[in-house]
Amino acid sequence: MDPTGQKYFTIIDYVIFALLLVASMAIGLYYAFTGGRQSTTQEFMYADRSMKCLPLSLSLMATFQSAVAIIGTPAEVYANGTQYWFIGCCYILGLLIPAHIFIPMFYRLHLTSVYQYLELRFCKAVRICGTVTFIFQMVIYMGVGIYTPALALNAVTGFHLWGAVLATGLVCTLYTALGGLKAVVWTDVFQTVVMFTGQLAVIIVGVHQAGGLSDAWVKVRDGGRISGIDLNPDPTVRHTFWTLGVGGVFLMLSLYGVNQAQVQRYLSSRTEKEAVMSCYMVFPCLQVALMLSCLMGLVMYACYGNNSPLEQQYITSKDQMVLYFVMDMLQNFPGLPGLFVACLFSASLSTISSAFNSLATVTMVDLIKPHYSMTEARATLLSKMLALSYGIICVAMAYVVHLMNSSVLQAALSIFGMVGGPLLGLFCLGIFFPCANSIGAVTGLAAGLVMAFWVGIGGFLSRMPSSVQVLPFNSTNTVLAASENITVPAVIDAASRPAGLNGLYSLSYMWYSALNSSTVVLIGLIISFMTATCLLERLTEKTQLDSQKPSNSSEDAGTEEETETFLPSNAVSPLEHETSV
Question: CATH code at 140?
């Protein structure tokens, strides 16, 4: 290993890298010019509802577990140990609940956009609010998705950072706009296989460089990177069993339960049974992806120990560690560095393309079609133009990510917790609480977003820049025996714990989704109760006034006219209408 100096691709690396990108583009173009040629919105947005569960499950996994997991998770494990691995516990409830509650309901309603449910349950204003919030969420997140592979290419080969951003956006936008959802799903399948292959190759070579399995295990054990179960209930600790296993459930629900990019895949399956089965099959896929990413972090520590390339100033950010490690370990294996970088680049394409397709769908279905009538051909063309437009917008958001003082992994999960949490709360309010009304839903969503950005931005501003800590607060320093693999939470001095607003700002980013969704439900129920009480009081007062009037035909006619003016034409109150859906 030669840890010093700039790493460069060989010609073979460039060829393999280019071939994989061309293959991804070819899959997209194939579906653009075969079958129905993406000539209808049904084919472009939902693949004619003909997808099988296996490709859907791989696509569901790749959408939000691609470059973020490959770049962020190994760096997290290298720095802080395997505590993050316990996030796999939240996958169980995080996938069972969507499979048995959200998917059957959405599928049986024959929705095109998941936000159509909000209009059926509440009103059109709630639907528009949900759609706009989702667009805002995904545009910001796509900045992370585009910036991650560009950062990798820049760190490894010296390729211009913003040139790589533009290349990523261009390739992804073209095959998404031309091939539709069918192209997106099948490129996800191909890119997932490449991703797993690249990670496995790096792990095998890294273990060999570390001296074998036994030597690698001794190094990571003695280095304190095998973390036990941290049962500390303090919500300000970044990673504990509770923040990952419980807080992560809310994050998973916002991703796999009510996110348009995922629901769109469920609705593209042939039957409801296959949609549910695809959700089940995501569980082993996510566990394999998490295992490979965590093992890469352990192998990195076995090779480098406490001599971090970041501390040696060979790299400038811990998010560059994975690619630096790959080039350092595989420099004597021509082609493998190109394979891994291409796998990272392709995995990011899967995330970005899913967002482009879902953004174009909700904009067309929720914001344009209800107000403008158009032919099927024109609607399909406009959907493709929307995908192109979102490609340009999301490329611009990469610059915002460049300015953030946070890791890629934490930035991505924080964004989904800040904005995805209120959306999850809005759907839970409608599904689980029949007493909630439209006024409560809009007010609750607004309160959830205010809470999200108050805590998120406040925490960001109060967080002082810090380097990678070799020994974290919440990981075990040594593991002497199998019986000592549980860390019992110690009594923390109250004076050392953040208090007041600082305590709120110090909340672990894994709790963002739970906090914000709970805020939406709580405020929504309170406002719904208040408005329902006021409405009932008005109805009671009106009934009492009517009963005091002398009964005659002319006054009866006036009373009926007033009642018809007060209530909708179908003589059903808004609360009864909303609750009945």
Answer: 1.20.1730.10
Whether residue 553 is contained in a domain is answered as no
Judge whether 443 lies within some domain.
Answer: no
Q: For residues 427 and 217, what is the distance between their CA atoms, to the nearest angstrom?
A: 45
**What single-letter amino acid sits at 267?**
L
**pTM value?**
0.82
Cα end-to-end distance, the chain, whole Å? 64
| pLDDT of residue 109 exceeding 50 | yes
DSSP tally for the chain: helices H, then strands E: 24, 2
Structure-token pair, residue 537: 């009081």
Give per-residue pLDDT as tens, 371-428: 888 888 888 889 889 988 888 888 888 777 777 655 554 555 566 667 888 999 999 9
Please check whether residue 410 lies inside any domain of the structure.
Answer: no
Domain assignment present for residue 520? The answer is no
Closest CA to 227 of 421, 473, 34: 473
CB burial of 138-153 (b: ≥16 within 10 Å; e: otherwise) equals bbbbbbbbbbbbbbbb
Question: Does the structure show a pLDDT above 90 at 126?
Answer: yes
For 321, the domain range is: 11-403
CA distance 226 to 82: 6
How many structural domains are present in the chain? 1
- Give the C-alpha separation, 358 to 261, whole Å: 5
